[in-house]
Write the structure tokens for this entry.
Amino acid sequence: MINDRRVVPEFYSPIYRMAVAQFEQAAERLHLDPNVRKRLISPKRALLVSVPVAMDDGRVEVFQGYRVHHDCTLGPSKGGVRYHPDVTLGEVSALAMWMTWKCALVGLPFGGAKGGVSCDPGAFSRKELQRLTRRYTSEILTMIGPDIDIPAPDIGTNEQVMAWMMDTYSQHKGYSVPGIVTGKPLSIGGSMGRSAATGQGLVYILAEALKQKNKSFSGMEVVVQGFGNVGSNAAEILYKEGCKIVGVSDAFSGLYNPKGILIPDLIQHVKKGKVVSGFPDAEKITNEELLVLKCDVLVPAAISGQITEKNAKNIKASIILEGANGPTTPEADLILKDRGIWVIPDILANAGGVTVSYFEWVQGMQNFFWKEKEVMEKLKDVMTAAFASVLETSIKENVDLRTAALMRGIKRIADAYLARGLFP
């Protein structure tokens, strides 16, 4: 089915093939209407733009930008903006598809979208990054809007980038439009709790999973791959809950200490030097070594395709909690399932970010803002309910958690398609 001529070849990439393979597996279990299946296998629309940027030395560099809407049946589309050298149309299309299932799974009135620019943001000055962001926003202006598509931060972007996007959109409109992006600073309409939302959501989901195994956080050995926003927040919260974080990594190196890493000290170290390397109270290890460390919980919170058929047989964790999008390949899923390792899938585990983004959007549209305690209580309610529904489907249908989560998300979209019909 992945090589079917119905799928536009431009979308092909390893990550897109993975997303489609997951969709096809769940669609088979659902006995999905073939006409709906045809419509969901490719994005609704995609935009490719050139992003010329005046660099500080006077040169003009041109970067490739993208924005993809996979689906908008339930409401405006929602998805992050990624600045990374490996951003492609295929990657963005896969991420948009996963966003569709994620939003539907946790009951948000959004479809899936994603965007990005193929670049290395770390090589830019602040002024260059601002010019890139403003030009990219201008180029995708027809694709975004508080009732059309609401961008958010992703890899390589942050609340400052979102502030620039909001301002650029607002300048074109002639008035302030806080609902155009989420994940922006509190000073211009951001939500309390948004920065830590994905990491906190991971912890809420892990708490529910541990209950099923009659275990608690206390003394739990955890390894976190990726020490960006998601990984660092998850590690900090788990540390405070009593877990022992024995390994962490970033894009450059990893750390290991069987007695546990002092996460507050590591966070301060990273704030100063921007990398985990050089932290004195841990042994330096490679990313490959980190993934196969002995632990109870492995949290892949970096990029896609990290757990593969090559290393899945050596994973020693009993639970894999996916903080990143698509960190585990379908081939690795089969190996992990056979080994009895519980994989809590990305569209469930890391849905805390988009959930609090929804809260931010609602607050911005109403100009009525909530306290952090209220945000976190609402987030916990959403995440625990989603886990319970996925677990119920997993048991009832005798499928793994990933298939169960996909089945629930896809079915909600399919039901909406069938209710709305086909235009014209």
Summary: The chain has two domains: 9-177, 197-349. The chain has a mean pLDDT of 95. Residues 159 and 185 are 6 Å apart (CA to CA).
